[in-house]
From TrEMBL:
This is UDP-N-acetylmuramoyl-tripeptide--D-alanyl-D-alanine ligase. Keywords: ATP-binding, Ligase, Nucleotide-binding. It comes from Candidatus Buchananbacteria bacterium CG10_big_fil_rev_8_21_14_0_10_33_19. Pfam families: Mur_ligase_C, Mur_ligase_M. GO terms for molecular function: acid-amino acid ligase activity; ATP binding. Residues 98-244 form the Mur ligase central domain. PANTHER family: UDP-N-ACETYLMURAMOYL-TRIPEPTIDE--D-ALANYL-D-ALANINE LIGASE.
Amino acid sequence: MTSLVQWFLAKLAKLILKKYNPDIIGVTGSFGKTSAKEAIYTVLSSKFNVRRNIKNYNNEIGLPLTIIGTSSGGRSVGGWLVVFVKALALIIWRDKNYPEILVLEMAVDHPGDMTYLTNLAPCKIGVVTGVGPVHIEYFKTIEKIAKEKSVMVSHINKNGWVVLNCDNEYVCEMTKATRSRISSYGIVNHDVDIKASEILMSQHEDGQISGLSFKLFYKGSSVPVLLPNILGEHLIYAALAAASIGRIYDMNMVDIASALRTFRAPKGRMNLIVGIKNTYIIDDTYNAGPDSVLAALNVLGKIAIDHHKFAVLGDMLELGDFTESSHRDVGKAVCNNKIDYLITVGDKSKFIASEAEKQGLDKDNIFVFSSVEKAGLFLQDKMEEGDFILVKGSQGMRMEKIVKEVMAEPLKAQELLVRQDEKWLD
């Protein structure tokens, strides 16, 4: 039944796109694509009628649902009938409020996925946020992941745009794979069209973080940008991608900076949540890959406090032959960032613990657990007033359960945490 639903959805979505002809901005990458999608939506929606994926609607089923503008029918035949009726109504009658721009996150898990998605929704603009060893179990090498992502770049015609994070070597190489116009962005690479510098983490006297500020540069001019409640410097890349898109749509830099002040990181992505005992939790539980874990640890390491820092890390999944080396790299980063306590969850994360001890972290400050429930209860007892706790792991590890265990207001879990709907609750 699933394949039949997928086929029918694709047919309806293509007919809708043909009728309304919205600009399609595709966003892909091994990491950072959801944040980039949200930042792009934030900037463009200040001037245009825009729609983006909700939830995790970024695959063969989710993309058509976003194009239709409806939720999944789930396991209900009646629910799917409602979806199809709504799609047919859009095709038969004209909806004058249909979005002029669709910002579509496109996720690839297996070879061939990007070809399917771009055939379904051909992009006018393609954004590639980064390439790294995520889903490498199915691709075997990073080069093959890059090749899959580059399908988006290569399918865009000469009148379109490709927006590339040129701090990532695999992404920057994609300039050779496109015939379209190119807009590049970065922080480290200065030979880009849009860049950020003078990045500062703003903290109040009481230690509370107010956000990140930086200068946004474009063609020799600059504007100051503040991202309230944003912790991760890597989220600045999302802002840069959004600024690149804003310029493509002729928005001025001041308006772009103003719109970015309203940007909020998606749930489970470096969100600051108040914990029990007057502690602070950095909730980065949406998912985890080597690059994003290292970036999160870097953020925790830079926070200046007189209290303890905890890294609560679950397994990074689907890394194939890179499993041990990637987890050991994280263990090194725990020490390099002077984290006080390490708590790991899962079999693969034992490599993190082993390497952290090897690199000099006191073994009495390393705690290894097989389940999130046990880890959460231990953390609840161990944490003290003023501590900062980073919680992160792959989706399958369900690390958000730990956040819920130690957050000050667990009744707000539905509002603040990922995976709180019936599909995930158990």
